[in-house]
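Quick illustration, no need to memorize.
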Amino acid sequence: MDISVLQNFFILLVFFLSFEARADVKSMPVNRENEIGWVLFNFPPLFKFSEGTSDIEKSVGPMAEIQRELVKALPQYKHSFHLVTFPRAKKLFESGNHYCTILLLKTEEREQYLYFGSTIATTLPPGLVILRKNENLIKPSSTHSTVDLLKLLQTTNFQLGVVSGRSFSSEVDHSLTQAQKSVYKLVVSEAMGSLFKMITAQRIDGALAYYLELAEEQARNPASRELGFYPLKQDQEILSLPVSCEKSEWGKRTLKNIARAVKDQAVREKLAELTRQTLMLEPPKVDVKTEQILR
């Protein structure tokens, strides 16, 4: 056989084999089993980011501390962080791209696209925030120093503000659903601060908020010190804050690994300490005058 023919044959053979090898590499799936994309919300003062950044190391607040502790407890994973709005989060979880979060309460609606796992913290429930001088607005809907939210929204013209996409508890969420026309929903980065300003300006009558949110607002904004915090009849005594992951087999496996990590005594003690110091901060007791109004 002619040598030039053999040379051409070997050249073609090498080219074919190298092409097949490259094709095999391209067609191999990328192994992302040990990657977690953490979905985060700007949720001051529980979880607060500097403007224009989602750098987890520069974030502040008790839930930011808990997030960092959880990341340290999972060294086998590569972690990324994604700062979004509440409505945007659902799309990420439904994408199947390995997302988890520590910032969503368990609800029936969210169980359609999330698996919920270990409780990593507890907190006191939200309440109704209004101007103290407007306490008479809630008197007809109040008994034993608590406000019946559903009665308030269904029997009066009370205009309530909430952060769009937030959930509070099954009973509170049910009340909001039953009275949608009375609820004003706001989607902005500093949504709760904006709602507090709207109450102060009397553009809305009140809003649902955690006491920590009101306490921070009152510390930095003297005008908001005219606002009061009122417990709801529909509230649970304590809310559990679970970790959750996308509803997939990967999500199930990841939650099992997280459960093992938070059983570690040092991790468990650190999470409990952060909970005691901040998330369980109680609002001041209702004063005598307010208690008489709300009887």
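The radius of gyration is 26 Å.
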